[in-house]
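Chapter review: from sequence to fold.
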Amino acid sequence: MNLRQLKAFSAVMDSGLISRAANEIGITQPAVSKMIKSLEEEFGVELFERRKGRLKATPAAHFLNNVAKSVLDQIVDAQRFLEDYGNLRVGDLKILSIPGPTLFFLPDLIRRFAPSDSRITISLLSWPTPNVVNWISNHQTGIGLAEWEAANPFVSIRTFALPVSCAMCRHHPMAQKEVLTPHDLHDQDLAVINSDHQLYKDLEVTFREHGCAMNVRIQSDLFVPQFSLLPGTRIVGVVDPINIRNYDLLSPEKGEIVFRPFAPETHLHVSVITPAFGAQSKVEEEFEKLLAKELGKLEKRGIR
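The token string follows.
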């Protein structure tokens, strides 16, 4: 028994005529008759009685028809699944990230990658860097975005250096400058990441090397809340491109805060983390490409 025989048999059961069944499945009448006869001979049963030019299904045919429809329905489901899988419309997508990108940056990428009418199952978790790396290392699945550069034999790491910029109220006097330097920000009230973060330490070194004081007024582990504190003040924030993208998505009007490049270039280093040994699904592979492409744009351009 094969699928062509089952399709021919099912078409005859539905139509009651060899000719109509042949038209429905796109083969000749003799071919349909031959397949029905081969089924009967192979199993030693009569499937149809011939009465006045029509076929009357036997009890054996009714039993086989139930099985045939179940098998053919499963084949159709499998075909549909493979088509959707190949078109990135079905599958599992697990993303583990440091908190900042999970606010708006990653949700926007996910929305663009997996439209609402797809059947992709999405998991987006916000974890510290060690948890992201450990989970992917142990489970060999998922895509991670973390602040990580150290070698690890169980994960693959691709790191991007994202140049930071200065964020300020659009009425700030320094908003007229095209680029801001440590000398411009000497003793200026600043909003920056927490002091235990590597970016904070890198900024300290840069200011020190230029003989400038870094006067920190606001610190936080996420920069997005600081966007609410900058308008109407003289505070200048030092922010990475991912959080600038967060601001663009949070405030489409982009009216109150402006961004200016910071020189010399100082970077936030983020890494895309993937399993070293686990096989990625097509959905994971394609989303990783999209994520890397977006980070590559931010790495090259910094701020617009």
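Two observations follow directly from the output. The mean pLDDT is 89. The chain has three domains: 3-86, 90-160+269-301, 165-265.
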